Amino acid sequence: MAFGSFDRSGGNAPMAEINMIPLIDVMLVLLVIFIITAPLLTHAVKIDLPKASSQPNLTRPEHIQVSIDAASGVFWNGEKLDRAAMRARLAAASKRDPQPELHLRADKATPYQAVAEVMADAAKSGLTRIGFVSNPDDGR
After folding, report:
1. What is the pLDDT of residues 72-123, one digit of tens each?
2. Residue 83: what are its φ and ψ, rounded to 5°?
3. What does the domain layout of the chain look like in residue ranges?
4. 16 to each of 9, 13, 19, 38, 77, how far by Cα in Å?
5. How far, in Å, CA of 84 to CA of 25, rounded?
6. In angstroms, rounded to a whole number, what is the distance separating the alpha carbons of residues 12 and 17?
7. CATH code of domain 63-133
8. What is the CB neighbour count within 10 angstroms for residue 102?
9. Helix/strand/coil (H, E, C) string of 23-89?
10. Which phi and psi angles does 63 have, rounded to 5°?
């Protein structure tokens, strides 16, 4: 389609105007699509829920004190155990519902190997809530 005139002077010059009609057509089509689909996206079923007052049932998990002394002795709630008995108790504790928290108390002179072994055994048995117990710093 040729846009030109019968005038010979500017016949070969490029057209410097932007054709806005296709752009406006596309924008109007998109506007109509959004107007139609917007109510469908925010559609919700309105229901009147019954009201009841109740207290939430909070079941606090028990906690297990595992202590490790400076000689790498392991204690379960104050009872000295060997590593095999500790693994058996950890496996039994992991099957309880709710799962108990494991509070790990280690002497500051305890070798890291002993602490790592207890933590690895607890993780292998499935206990996921492990916390370290320490004395608060007096600020000195």
Report:
1. 899 998 899 999 999 999 999 989 888 899 999 988 888 999 999 999 999 9
2. -70, -35
3. 63-133
4. 16, 9, 10, 38, 88
5. 78
6. 15
7. 3.30.420.270
8. 22
9. HHHHHHHHHHHHHHHHHHHCCCCCCCCCCCCCCCCCCCCCEEEEEECCCCCEEECCEEECHHHHHHH
10. -125, 150
| 11: its two tokens | 């016949």
User: Each residue of 18-49: pLDDT tens digit?
Assistant: 888 899 999 999 999 999 888 777 766 676 66
- Give, as one character, the DSSP assignment of residue 129: -
Here the tokens at position 22 are 């296709």
Amino acid letter for position 64? I
Closest CA to 86 of 132, 129, 128, 119: 119
Residue 133 β-bridge partners: 105
* DSSP category for residue 109: T
